[in-house]
Q: What sequence folds into this?
């Protein structure tokens, strides 16, 4: 009996040690992400569960907030040492926050991770000084949305990918009549269009340079849509002007405007006309250089489980994960091989949607911005609207913004 009791006791101790060992191997990761709806949150939770399905010893706890709150809270969390293991990051905000993230180049090289499977421009967008700080899950080139019904009623051929600025301007003029406008322009469209035309507003040192001849020439074109050609309506000096123009497009008041593929899903139920897509107009003498933006996932520098987090973000951006997001219509995948699935779901009712996006991605470049880009865009929103109304020319506008940024 004593032998039996001793055997049972040893077995119990062994079982306890085994349980402790198994528990010690369990890794609990935290992941912070923005969300816009319950459906969004379910999609992200599905991806978190995919990590555990592949790595049973890794559990990912998802925390979500709204888009605006996410960026407000991020520096607060960083300052208080409460960053999650996995931090979601948008390419346009990478210059501001990359110091919070672990560089990935060494891990990529060690694991021979295939970066070539992703659209090159978004890899550039998630990088700073040639160091990658996040694996991307989506990518989106800015394109022109157009009202198919209005264009056909005006007797204008549907615009083909790669169309020129002259063709675009001619169409906008023909569409401007009866109190409606051919094009809806916003101040923040400046950098997107300048890039498309090959005009530079940031110098080789990465500094804002709005007063060089190329940057001013682009500003003259942008301002001229409203001030000279009168094909675009005046807009308020407001950070929300993009929403205003999108609303005017949805209501049929403007026939064309600039946006990204991320807006397709929400637009379908609002616009009461056939929607088409085409590329940004290129300079008549140059190839298109379509800028892209996107988002992805990085590893916080304060994470105590960086190896596990590296495994996790590979799953979150895997072909299977991006296929799932594509089928939900949630994101145009950063992986080129997964993009066709998104076209079939999100862009299936959009005229020439796939062709426009394919052409744009094939002619895409990273969006060049400065580390104080939010402040620059706020000044665009303040100083471009008066110029649209004719109270200031392009040079005055650009010199004013440049001067204020340097203060």
A:
């Amino acid at each position: 009996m004593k032998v039996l009791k001793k055997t049972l006791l040893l077995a119990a101790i062994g079982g306890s040690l085994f349980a402790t060992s198994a528990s010690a191997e369990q890794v609990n990761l935290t992941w912070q992400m923005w969300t816009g709806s319950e459906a969004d949150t379910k999609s992200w939770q599905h991806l978190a569960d995919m990590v555990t399905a592949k790595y049973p010893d890794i559990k990912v706890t998802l925390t979500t907030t709204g888009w605006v709150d996410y960026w407000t809270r991020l520096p607060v969390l960083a300052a208080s040492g409460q960053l999650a293991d996995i931090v979601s990051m948008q390419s346009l905000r990478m210059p501001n926050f990359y110091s919070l993230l672990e560089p990935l180049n060494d891990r990529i090289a060690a694991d021979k991770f295939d970066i070539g499977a992703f659209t090159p421009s978004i890899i550039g967008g998630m990088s700073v000084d040639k160091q990658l700080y996040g694996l991307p899950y989506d990518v989106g080139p800015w394109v022109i949305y157009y009202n198919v019904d209005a264009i056909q009623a005006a007797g204008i051929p549907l615009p083909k990918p790669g169309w020129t600025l002259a063709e675009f301007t001619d169409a906008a003029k023909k569409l401007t009549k009866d109190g409606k406008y051919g094009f809806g322009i916003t101040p923040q469209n400046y950098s997107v269009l300048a890039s498309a035309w090959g005009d530079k507003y940031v110098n080789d040192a990465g500094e804002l340079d709005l007063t060089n001849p190329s940057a001013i020439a682009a500003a003259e074109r942008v301002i001229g849509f409203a001030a000279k050609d009168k094909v675009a309506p005046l807009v308020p000096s407001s950070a929300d002007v993009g929403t205003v123009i999108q609303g005017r497009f949805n209501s049929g008041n403007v026939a064309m405007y600039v946006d990204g593929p991320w807006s397709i899903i929400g637009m379908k139920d609002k616009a009461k006309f056939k929607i088409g897509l085409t590329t940004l107009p290129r300079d008549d003498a140059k190839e298109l250089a379509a800028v892209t933006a996107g988002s992805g996932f990085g590893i916080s520098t304060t994470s105590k489980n960086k190896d596990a987090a590296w495994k996790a973000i590979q799953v979150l951006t895997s072909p299977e994960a991006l296929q799932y997001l594509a089928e939900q219509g949630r994101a145009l995948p950063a992986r080129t091989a997964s993009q066709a699935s998104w076209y079939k779901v999100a862009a299936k009712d959009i005229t020439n949607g796939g062709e426009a996006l394919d052409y744009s991605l094939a002619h895409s470049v990273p969006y060049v911005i400065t580390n104080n880009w939010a402040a620059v865009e706020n000044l665009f929103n303040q100083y471009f609207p008066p110029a649209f109304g004719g109270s200031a020319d392009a040079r005055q506008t650009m010199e004013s913004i440049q001067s204020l940024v340097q203060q």
Confidence is low (pLDDT under 50) at residues 1-24. Residues 107 and 307 are 9 Å apart (CA to CA). The chain has 18 helices and 13 strands. The first helix runs from residue 2 to 25.
